[in-house]
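Subject: Protein record for review, amino acid sequence with backbone structure tokens
Why sent: The fold of this protein is of interest and is recorded here as tokens.
Notation: Tokens come from a learned vocabulary of local backbone shapes, not from coordinates.
Attached in line: The record itself begins immediately under this heading.
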Amino acid sequence: MTNERSLRVAVAGCGTMGKLYASVLTRMVDIELAGFYARRSESAIDAAASFGTRLFMSYEELLAEADIDVVCITLPTYLHRQYAVQAAERGKHVICEKPMALTLEDTEAMMRASERYGTRLLVGHVLRFAPEYRNLRDHVLSGKIGKVGVGHARRASLHPPSGSWFKNEEMSGGVLFDLMIHDIDFMRWTLGEVRSVYASLTTASGIEYANATLRFASGAIVNLEAHWGYPGPFLAEVELAGQSGVMRCSNQNGQSLIVRQMESPGIAGEGVHIPSFLLKKDPYEAEIEHFIACIRTGAEPVVSAEDASRAVEIALAAGCSAQTGLPQKL
């Protein structure tokens, strides 16, 4: 637990997510952006200058700063274990971008280091902080559509640049870890534990597409799609169907959540629209503020390191199924 003095927070990584984190941190009260660590480049120098902060020449130099309390890790996924463990060893709390890591060995090493050195390990599964997804989950848990039997989620974006680390599966885990893991975590958070996964993966020039069927302990069956190379604006949508209705949300329409309920069993009813509120706070901002509050107070986070590790386990099972053509039990 950290007292109420200003927290000094550094960011390891100076790409898109590193800059996003920095922009959020600089707007927060009682937070000081202590600097970036990134390979020295014109982009990193410009970013540090634009945020009015320091660019550390090495990660060791950053960790040697005794008054840095928190390190946000926004580096390529394959580096998460190394940088998180090093930070914990130096007594720094860690906020790590999703996915937590690429192997269970790595996630377990990160959790062990956090426990051993008494630091917090917080992993950014941002859908848990997105109002439309939280709203959908709240209605499901309230029983609004009865017991969920089937579901579907789809997430699609442009293909990463050919020279990007995202394109290297050994660094990023590919589309399963970059895109699908969002919906894996959300569905597990909403529906409970996954018992088996069956998946396929298709790659072609400029395209990587994954499809996975998750069977839950509750009996629900959910289909997930993740697509790099989608010829259109970023797409994210989810639908859950229960015994007495259907709920769906999509970033492609202006309604944050649509509920269609049956008037009585077996009779289709009229659509009931749940009004959306204008987003007063970006989900990343809500997520980072929540994590900082957990570090200050010792409160349990909305998403635990164990939750993040379970998402990695399910993504790994999907990858194994895609390779073998066989369903994988969990």
Notes: Confidence is low (pLDDT under 50) at residues 263-279. The two ends are 35 Å apart (CA to CA).
